[in-house]
Amino acid sequence: MADRTGADTGGDTGRDPDVLTTAELAAKLGLSAQTVRRMAHAGQIPALKTGKDFRYSWEAVREVLRQPHHQPGTADDPATEPSKGAGYRAQRRARTGATTDD
């Protein structure tokens, strides 16, 4: 079935469900699309540049965000609380498996 934009909203779209657009990934992580793009540009999350935007593997992003966050120039002390900068909420959600869509 097609929605009002003509996009197929049901059945097999021929698209890998693991591959997400910036907007889709932002919604899953509870972040803005701008924050997701900044994280991709900074190399904080794996992304494939497609024209002017990116595509993301949900599993690859979750795996990266599950890793401990270490600030450059700080000791790798596990007792130290990581900085709560951009991506902190996404990392926390990925570690706990929480999403806004599921």
Your description of this structure?
Helix 1 (22-29) crosses helix 2 and helix 3 crosses helix 4 (88-96). Helix content is 34%, strand content 11%. Strands 1-3-2 form a three-stranded antiparallel β-sheet. Mean pLDDT is 76; it is low at 1-9. The longest helix is centred in the middle third of the chain and has 9 residues, at 33-41. The protein has a domain at 19-66 and 85-96: Orthogonal Bundle (Arc Repressor Mutant, subunit A). With 102 residues, it is an alpha+beta fold. Strand 2 (48-50) and strand 3 form a beta hairpin. InterPro entries: DNA-bd_dom_put_sf (IPR009061), HTH_17 (IPR041657), SinI_DNA-bd (IPR010093). Residues 19-67 form the Helix-turn-helix domain. Residues 65-102 are annotated as: Disordered. It comes from Actinomadura gamaensis.
Q: How are the secondary structure elements laid out?
A:
Layout: E1 19-21, H1 22-29, H2 33-41, E2 48-50, E3 53-57, H3 58-66, H4 88-96
Antiparallel strand pairs: 1-3, 2-3
Brief summary of the model shown:
The chain has 102 residues and is of the alpha+beta class. Helix content is 34%, strand content 11%. The protein is globular.
CA radius of gyration is: 16 Å
**Main structural class:** alpha+beta
| Termini gap | 22 Å
CATH topology of the domain at 19-66 and 85-96, anyone? Arc Repressor Mutant, subunit A
DSSP helical segment count: 4
SSE string, helix = H, strand = E?
EHHEEHH
The number of E-state strands comes to: 3
Strand order of the largest sheet: 1-3-2
Residue share in helix: 25-40%
Architecture of the domain at 19-66 and 85-96, CATH level 2?
A: Orthogonal Bundle
Say what oligomer this is: single chain
Give unreliable regions as ranges: 1-9
Text of the CATH class of the domain at 19-66 and 85-96: Mainly Alpha
* Largest sheet features: 3 strands, antiparallel
